[in-house]
Amino acid sequence: MWGRTSASRGEKLVREPRRRLLRVVVAVGCAAVALMFMPFPEPAAPAGALGRPFAWNQDQRWRELEASFRHAREAGCPGVTSRAEAMLGEGRRLLAEAASARLGPDSVLLDEIERNTFELGPMVAACPETIPRYAILVTRMRSVVKEQSRHWDMRLSATRTRMYRLLYGGRAALEEAMLQAPRAVVSPLVRGDDEPSVTPSAEILGVRVHSGDMLVSRGGVPTSALIARGNDYPGNFSHVALVHIDERSHQTSVIEAHIERGVAVASLGDYLKDVKLRVIVLRLRSDLPEVAADPLLPHRAAVALLEETRGRHIPYDFEMDFTEHSKLFCSEVASAAYERLGVTLWMGLSRISSPGLVRWLSGFGVRHFQTQEPSDLEYDPQLTVVAEWRDPQTLFADHLDNAVVDAMLEGAEEGDTLAYPLPLLPVARSAKAYSSLLNAFGLVGPVPEGLSAAGALRNRQFSRTHAAIRQRTAVLVSEFERTQGYRPPYWELVNLARRGRVELRGGGR
User: Where are the beta strands (DSSP E) in 352-491?
Assistant: First the structure.
């Protein structure tokens, strides 16, 4: 009996630590599970840039232009040809006058050029055979304005507004005409100014591109539209890449920062495989003092960045800090490469001031709201626009995505959030941990390096909300086309997207 009692007591002494250990393990497991579901406190959204978002505030003018198009459409091409020709002639005269003088951004002559560009659009849209000449006029206007801007102070909001109204507005007017025209009359390529360069070159889609050129493009996913529109001056572009062309083999490489894997080097073929709704080629002016002193400077910038990219892993910079180069976002790829050789790009920095937009972007990790946005590189007077491609087949998709984002950003200012289902947080955190493990071995995981699990879920929610509003807006577009007989111009497209958002409002909260 004593033996059995001692044995029982011994077994109890053994079992008790095991129970305690099991309780500890269960408690730790429960705590770990609870932590997986618990949203971590996140930094408060930073203050936005000290600026004021641009607003056209010209709804009446847009209605008048649309009415002008309806009248011209009813009259047909024979009924509007003489007026269209007269306005094309007036536009050429105004540009010749502007090119022969030194103008300030407040010039009345520039007001007249803007008026002519917008009023000509409906006439051209009703008479599609005039679109190629209208494209030449708008392209010439851009060249004249960029030439004039060389002596403007790009830090002033009045200067920036003038550049935006003419360059962005001219592109918008041309594209409205293109979207109303039969596809057969629209060319994907519009040539700009062939800025001289002595750096190695290669032909890309019919255009001679040089090493050191920048390719500014627009992707086809919802976040591309957010990048393009998320700015005090909403734009058309979401991505910047730097071209390197080998001086011996003339092999073309494209250096770009990807959200998924950081800075990488792609072949031209791989670059073009990704969806590009539009692309422009920008080239440093040959008469800049730095380039005049060293004509191969653009090539040297591309070579240095290519070597750095191949020599180390450069993560994507979600904070959008263009002053610190251990990490790079897409615009910074170009600006950092040239900064090291004494050329500062983005003479007019981008500003993001809207509180709702700042709140959304901070949820993705953005911390700098005076930065370098892709769309704004076009306005830099140091750069020449060499060419622009836009696919007429996908141009309306570009406009539709933009309109939906514009409507969503209005919702952000009204308090809409990018809330995500809490049960998905543990899944996202597990995916983030797995991604971090892959990143350690130079591989790409489901959650981009530098993006938090919560940020990934917000990105998912943004894309899902965008898709839902876009689908409803597309139905409203079809109804508009059926009743009106033409595609809705952009201002109508935004109104339809607003309706779609209101009808599906629950998806954005």
Answer: 370-371, 383-390
Length of the chain counted residue by residue: 509
For the residues 48-59, what does the mean pLDDT come to?
88
- DSSP conformation letters of 8-53: HHHHHHHHHHHHHHHHHHHHHHHHHHHHHHSPPP-PPPPP--S---
- Asked if 121 and 109 sit in the same domain, the reply is yes
Question: Does the pLDDT of residue 37 top 80, yes or no?
Answer: no
Same-domain check for residues 482 and 408: yes
**pLDDT tier at 49 (50, 70, 90 boundaries)?**
confident
Q: To the nearest whole number, what is the mean pLDDT of the chain?
A: 90
Helix (H, G, I), strand (E, B) or coil at 256: strand
Within this chain, do residues 238 and 313 fall inside the same structural domain, yes or no?
A: yes
- Domain with residue 231: its CATH number is 3.90.1720.10
* 3-class secondary structure, 281: strand
Contact 233, 159 (CB under 8 A): no
Provide φ and ψ at 202, rounded to 5°. Answer: -155, 160
- pLDDT confidence tier of residue 184, bands split at 50, 70 and 90: low
3-state secondary structure 209-222: EECCCEEEEECCCH
Helix axes 490-503, 453-484, angle to 10 degrees: 120
User: Quick check: is 381 in a domain?
Assistant: yes
Alpha carbon distances (Å) from 34 to 25, 37, 72, 395: 14, 5, 65, 47
Rg of the chain, C-alpha, whole Å? 27
Residue 376's CB is within 10 A of a number of other CB atoms, namely: 27
Residue 58: per-residue pLDDT: 92
Is residue 319 included in any domain, yes or no? Answer: yes
Check whether 33 has a pLDDT greater than 70: no
Mean pLDDT, residues 22-42: 48
- 268 in the same domain as 148: no
Instruction: Give the relative orientation of helices 297-311 and 330-339 as an angle to the nearest 10 degrees.
Output: 120
Asked if 173 and 196 sit in the same domain, the reply is no
d(CA 429, CA 260): 16
Tell me if 44 is assigned to some domain.
Answer: no
Is residue 20 predicted with pLDDT exceeding 70?
A: no
- Which residues are CB-neighbours of 479 under 8 A, at least 6 positions away? none
Q: Residue 241 sits in which domain range?
A: 190-390
**pLDDT (mean) for 421-439:** 88
User: According to the 3-state scheme, what is the secondary structure of 374-394?
Assistant: HHHHHHCCCEEEEEEEECCCC
Task: List residues bridging with 26 in a β-sheet.
Answer: none
Domain boundary among 360, 390, 420: 390
Judgement on whether residues 362 and 233 belong to the same structural domain of the protein? yes
224 and 183 within one domain: no
